[in-house]
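Today's session is about reading a structure prediction critically. Students often jump straight to the picture, but the first step is always the sequence itself: look for stretches that repeat, for charged clusters, for runs of hydrophobic residues. Only then move on to the predicted structure, which in these notes is written as discrete structure tokens rather than atom positions. Here is the chain we will use throughout the hour.
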Amino acid sequence: MRRLRRLALLAVATALLAAAPLALRRAPAAANPPPQLPTVEIAIVATPHDAAARASDVRFVAIDSLGVRETTLATLPHAPGAVVRGDVARDGARAVVVAADEEGARDRDWGAALWRVDASGVRLLARGVYHASRPLASIDGRVYVQRGASGAWPTAEEAKRGKLRTDALSIDAVDASGTHAIYTWSGYTLHIAGEIERELVVYRVGFEGADVVAIDRASGAVRTIASVMPFARDFSIDRGALWMSNRDEHDANVWIVARLDLATGAIARVASERGESLAPFALPNGTVAWTASGRRGLTLGALASGAVRSLAPLGAGYDVVTAASGDSAWATIAHVDSGFDRAAAVHLASGTPVRLTTRDERVTVLGFADAANGGAR
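Below is the predicted structure for this chain, in token form.
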């Protein structure tokens, strides 16, 4: 009798589940966070795992005591297999700005377009944006992008001396009145690393070498901060310092985590290892996270106390922090072990991971909705 009753209850439950909406039936990819974890909202771009994908969803993902909820703002069309990167808008609206390669662009290096995405849909802001670059949604309400045009390839003699193609480059501000160049230069790249007060912090690379400069947003005046090795990447800014990874000056097989004081130009070497996996990220609370050696997740160092701890929320593999909440309670990570990389939000105090999509998608994090710390650039 008890067995028959259990079978009857199972049949009723199965019928109710079949009648439920798909959104309610979808099984979460990770356990729902317990109620004591703080609520957070994260902007993402989700693209099907398809090399020829021609569109991506722009979503906000909310994590709270009820679980994980995804809200799609709009679907963004783009070139097949496009790189899509962006930032959370700083104008008080629930919106993001994204740069994505356009289909049919004549110059693929400068074939991305800048879009604003909100609940009303997708709106084109500018064309001719650098491929795979990340726009900066600034504290002044404008959006800054790298634009330009391809230059001539070097002659055979120039190539022997190590010269690469030199392009006409600009840092442009985009606002309601249009697109305006605030700085122009001829070189290899102008990478927008972040901002401090009235200035943009830019990593500049040309045939003569590489440096970090500050560009006044109003006047375009340039202040050189420091010369660096021309392999820098993984930029984030906190407390008047630019954090980055770069190659060691003397050993090409060694990579370092470096802190550059943006006022004095002093560079401090914080960590090093043989290999290129180091990827530092500075959190607002003074903690710096970087990829741990030996496929062991993350290393987190507290600058004030010098305390160091390890965190591997998704097990063995390489973890890279891509964004942080303003209170440093949450960070997003890209986790690589085998196959496709996975994106997750991690509650840092408890180490609880939450996957950012329930579907078979590649996720790029744009930032936290509080827009206080942005993401790695």
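Discussion point for the tutorial: Residues 1-31 have pLDDT under 50 and may be disordered.
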